[in-house]
Each structure stands twice: as structure tokens, then as C-alpha cells.
Amino acid sequence: MILVTGATGSTGKHLVSQLQARGAAFKALVRDKAKGEALGVDFAIGDFDDPASLSAAMEGVDRVFLASPGAQTEAPDGEQPMIRWERNVIDAAKAAGVRYVVKLSVWNARIGGRMSEGAHGVVEAYLKDSGLAWSMLQPGGFMQNFLSPASSLADEDGNLIGPEADAPVAFIDCHDIAAAAAALLTGDAGRNESFVLTGPESVRYSEIAAKLTAGWGRPVGFSGQSERAIADRLRGYGLAPQQADEMASLYASLGEGMFSEVSDAVERLTGAAPRSFDAFMAANPDAFPALATAGR
Ligand SMILES: NC(=O)c1ccc[n+]([C@@H]2O[C@H](COP(=O)([O-])OP(=O)(O)OC[C@H]3O[C@@H](n4cnc5c(N)ncnc54)[C@H](OP(=O)(O)O)[C@@H]3O)[C@@H](O)[C@H]2O)c1
């Protein structure tokens, strides 16, 4: 029996439907009954901050998908809460006799890294030391970050803000992260291995702006900005200085091509090529309504 944490999240919801389609034995961890009923699958109610609820959810479970929210920009001081939440799940899993954890991490996770890179680095080390079998899924940026104008960074004119240097980035659709997780959780491969997960191509922010123009049916320009300008903007939005600087530094790394290289891990694990950015948009017609109009 598999326990899917973060089951209502960007990757978890795809994993729930893919495990359901496979007929796999699993239950979803949700924070309340209404969320479980909305998923329409077996569920356990639990909270990452309530270890007793996690222990109860582990009953009969031998494999766990571990996903929690990313770095919190409003919690600048001290440890990111993600570290506490994921340690709690790993501790409950170990105490319950779980054998295997597939962890949703991030590309370039490392202790001392920026934002979620550092927090995931700490949790990866904790999981590796736990004695449980593990697999680390290390995606780069999610295509889902562009699902709505509100989920991406934009300037006052609605132009997409990206790094000045505008190197291509190997964004991935969370649908394909879930497919990789489903293959691992229902098979025997990939124990104690880390997988950098990307889409099939690298795309520049300027190219994404053109795609969003077609998808949203309004002009979306590209505004390439320096690391300093992005940090200042984020501080203006209320992020703490360290958070703003670390996030701006991540943007700069994207522009320098640090996340350009395409990996074949999704296809190796699942047997199917991951979705391109165009395929991601086509799979989300509600978010990109102008594509249907254009296709008529
Ligand atoms: N965004 C990116 O580009 C990117 C790239 C690489 C890696 N990542 C990583 O991907 C992971 C997922 O990030 P995301 O922002 O997309 O989050 P998400 O998966 O959309 O949401 C997090 C999930 O955790 C659940 N959750 C939140 N607090 C909880 C609690 N106290 N107890 C139990 N469940 C709780 C949420 O449930 P509710 O429905 O109840 O809120 C939701 O299902 C993060 O670790 C992030 O670092 C993100």
C-alpha cells in the first residue's frame, strides 16, 4: 500500500489519478475530509505538524510519496518549515515499518543551497541516513508556474519577467514528475538513486512569453531583468531581504544556463517522452483558452 502525501498538490494530484488508472493500492494523505472526498479515492486525514496523525496514516503502508510545500517566503528566519514537515513524515514512516520513500526534491538540492535547494538538501540527507530505501526526484522549474498570470512574475504592464541573460530552461510538467513517481512506487527500479527530471526541451523566458500570448489571447512581452532589479522587486512585494536575494540569485542562475540541460530520466523511468511546453498548454485548455479559439 502506497501513501501519497501532498496529494492535492501540483504533482500529488497527477500521481493520485495515475495510480488510480494503474489500479495500484494507495491512499491519499489530506488535511480534511472534504479534500479527501473531492479526490474520490481512499484517504487518511493528517497534518505534517501532527506526528500522531502521520503514524495513524501509515497503517498498512509500505511505500510513501513525500511531497510538501516549497520554501516559504514569509518565514525568513530559521529553518524552513518544509524540513520539519518532511522529517515528521520520514520518522513516522520508519516507525511504521515502511520500506521505501520517493521524495519530491529539487534539481541542485544541497545543504547550504538557496531557498528550497537548501531545505531539500537537508531532508535528502536525513532520508538517506534513515535506513529506508529512497529515490530523489529532482525537477527543475515547473511548467505549472506559468498556469496563470498570478503564478508567474510579471511587471506592471503584464510582461513576463525573466533573467536578463535568458538562457533556455528545461521546465517540466508536474504530470511527468508524477509519472516518474508512479513508475518507481509500483516497480522495483531506482532504489537509492537520484533523478534530475526535465521536460524534453529547454525554452527561453522570451519564448514562453510568446507562447503565453497565444494561450491567454493578449500580448505578453518579455522583460529580462538583472539579479539586482529582481531582488529589489521581490523586496517591494514584501519578501525578506535574504529570501528576495536568494530567489533573484536563482533567476540569475536560470539565465546563465544552469538549468538548461535536458535529462532523459522521465523516459527511462516511464517509457514515454515527457510533455513539451506546447503539449502542457494543450493539456490545460482552461488555463490557455485562446489556444482553442486559435485552433478553430
Ligand atoms: N514550483 C517549482 O518550480 C518547483 C520546482 C522544483 C521542485 N519544487 C518542489 O515541489 C514541491 C511542491 O511544491 P508546490 O509549491 O508545487 O506545492 P504543492 O504540491 O502544490 O502543495 C503542497 C501539498 O502539501 C499539502 N500540505 C501543505 N501543508 C500541509 C500540512 N501541514 N499537512 C499536510 N499536508 C500539507 C498541501 O495540501 P492542502 O491542499 O491541504 O494545502 C498540498 O497537497 C516543493 O517541495 C517544492 O520545493 C517546486
Report on the structure:
- The protein has helices at 12-22, 33-39, 51-57, 81-95, 116-128, 174-185, 205-216, 227-236, 241-255, 265-270, 277-282, 289-295, and strands spanning 2-4, 26-30, 43-45, 63-66, 100-104, 133-139, 160-163, 193-197, 222-225.
- By secondary structure, it is of the alpha/beta class.
- It has one domain (2-291): Rossmann fold (3-Layer(aba) Sandwich), CATH 3.40.50.
- The strands form two sheets. A seven-stranded parallel sheet has the order 3-2-1-4-5-6-8, with helices on both faces. Strands 7-9 form a two-stranded parallel ribbon.
- The model has no long low-confidence stretch (mean pLDDT 96).
- The protein binds NADP nicotinamide-adenine-dinucleotide phosphate.
- NADP nicotinamide-adenine-dinucleotide phosphate binds next to loops.
